[in-house]
Amino acid sequence: MGLKAVLVWCIWLGLIQYSVGGRVRHYRFDVEYMMRKPDCLEHVVMGINGQFPGPTIRAEVGDTLHIALTNKLFTEGTVIHWHGIRQVGTPWADGTAAISQCAINPGETFHYRFIVERPGTYFYHGHHGMQRSAGLYGSLIVDLPKGQKEAFHYDGEFNLLLSDFWHTSSHEQEVGLSSIPLKWIGEPQSLLINGRGQFNCSLAAKFINTTLPECQFKGGEECAPQILHVEPNKTYRIRVASTTSLAALNLAISNHKLVVVEADGNYVTPFVIDDMDIYSGETYSVLLRTDQDPKKNYWLSIGVRGRKPNTTQGLTILNYKTISASVFPTSPPPLTPLWNDFERSKAFTKKIIAKMGTPQPPKRSDRTIFLLNTQNRVDGFTKWSINNVSLTLPPTPYLGSIKFKLNDAFDQTPPPVTFPQDYDIFNPPVNPNSTIGNGVYKFNLNEVVDVILQNANQLSGNGSEIHPWHLHGHDFWVLGYGEGKFKQGDEKKFNLTHAPLRNTAVIFPYGWTALRFKADNPGVWAFHCHIEPHLHMGMGVIFAEGVHKVGKIPREALTCGLTGKKLVENGH
């Protein structure tokens, strides 16, 4: 049967459909727990269609994705967030439990339908409880339409999805974080590259100081590394996404330089690096030129940054096809930079500027909100708070409750838009007590909003952590970073000409980060620290804009809480 006949047959069966401006691509996702050996030891992981990580979604700009997600978890709800996809016109498909939709109950199927309108490197992950920590994630790649070419040339492509992995279950982690005293999750046992790592052996045992034996793979093991096979003197695009629950990572390839060309689905002014930091929630594309000795193989390494590491590097091999992939590199893996060399981290981050032609930020904002990140206590429980409010999500999703004016669904008092100016960010809070809340920051449609993220010391006085903040439904311009407490006059330092567009940005220890975005996407959107336990402990806020402009919300997104009750009362 010829290709044309196969396509006609598939269209007739409904496996492929075409819409104006692009194809409709159908996926069926069954979310379930499975026994797997991602780091060579058997553990329960969360996967999709029997795969861990979940299947890679690939589409072209203008395509509609239709993902029928069935919950096969038996006893808990689930959702999937499509990280970096703005969901213009489809806010109910953002995949955030209690925000954009009800959690999908066991046995139920939810239909996500949305258009991917921009090319880039994205991913998807669970957004209910700590299911991302359990392994619910996969890659999502959006290509340019056929016939269009990227501004940079490459001969081949690789996709790297980076994650961290614990031997304690996500449920045990949740209980520990919600206990008195707090039982912290600790550092991950392994770092995974495309769902593969090694806990009880080392690929580089001959080269590093370790008590672990050298890994002896025969082929086909679940934890055996996925090797990157390359031809000499070619250029490869490596797409990198970090879905880590905790770890900030540094990626390097022995003896090779990389050129950064994309960040969070936006093109950047290309720059050359020896290694790169990547925080949870970030994505990049880098170009690799295979210009080294083709009679050798080389290490690709990831290691922990930003936290004192207690996890061995994640490793795989860059194999020049001129020799066997079984030949180990002849030198040790790249050394991960010191975990607390924050100046190096800042230097990398500040190199990221917009590519010429990227929309520039509006010259002025209509309003500014200051968000102070602190660790606090609520009734003896350790929490993270924003302006002294720790986020606790309501039973009724915000999108439905605001759309239908169900004012009893959440606190109608807006959260604080700033914090006391005499707050000492360098010392533990004088009053450690905080409150829980579920209020919403509401913006007028098309309002230009500045957000100043302010970091501070922890409850224990043990220092200030890096926090990667992710905004749903939008990209923002990163206007700048600063040391200490943001003060009047700092806005004069804002970058208004080459500010990069991102959806995730970090605040460094004892520092501030300034962001600007336009509230032009009707819906309700989470803005939160992308470190999974921090969000679980309340480190997030809710933004809403133009909800009255939102079209008909699918009934299956509203079947819980007060919106579910409203459906019953209306005879649905």
UniProtKB/TrEMBL annotation:
* PROSITE patterns tied to this protein: MULTICOPPER_OXIDASE1, MULTICOPPER_OXIDASE2
Q: Where is the signal peptide?
A: 1-21
Principal location class: secreted
List the SUPFAM superfamilies hit by this protein, alphabetically: Cupredoxins
Keywords on record: Copper, Disulfide bond, Glycoprotein, Metal-binding, Oxidoreductase, Repeat, Secreted, Signal
Biological-process GO terms, alphabetical: negative regulation of defense response to virus; response to hydrogen peroxide; response to virus
Q: Report the GO molecular function annotations.
A: copper ion binding; L-ascorbate oxidase activity
Chain ranges of the Plastocyanin-like domain: 31-144, 158-321, 431-546
Show the catalytic activity: 4 L-ascorbate + O2 = 4 monodehydro-L-ascorbate radical + 2 H2O
Cofactor names? Cu cation
Q: What InterPro entries does the record tag this protein with?
A: Cu-oxidase-like_N (IPR011707), Cu-oxidase_2nd (IPR001117), Cu-oxidase_C (IPR011706), Cu-oxidase_fam (IPR045087), Cu_oxidase_CS (IPR033138), Cu_oxidase_Cu_BS (IPR002355), Cupredoxin (IPR008972), CuRO_3_AAO (IPR034267)
Cellular component aspect of the GO annotation? extracellular region; plasmodesma
Cross-referenced CDD domains: CuRO_3_AAO
Q: Which domain of life is it from?
A: Eukaryota
EC numbers, comma separated: 1.10.3.3
User: Among its keywords, does the record have Amino-acid biosynthesis?
Assistant: no
Q: Please state where this protein is localized.
A: Secreted
Q: Which Pfam families match?
A: Cu-oxidase (PF00394), Cu-oxidase_2 (PF07731), Cu-oxidase_3 (PF07732)
Role, per record:
May be involved in a redox system involving ascorbic acid.
Q: Which PANTHER family match?
A: FI03373P-RELATED, MULTI-COPPER OXIDASE
What family is this? Belongs to the multicopper oxidase family.
Q: How does it assemble?
A: Dimer.
Q: What is this protein called?
A: L-ascorbate oxidase
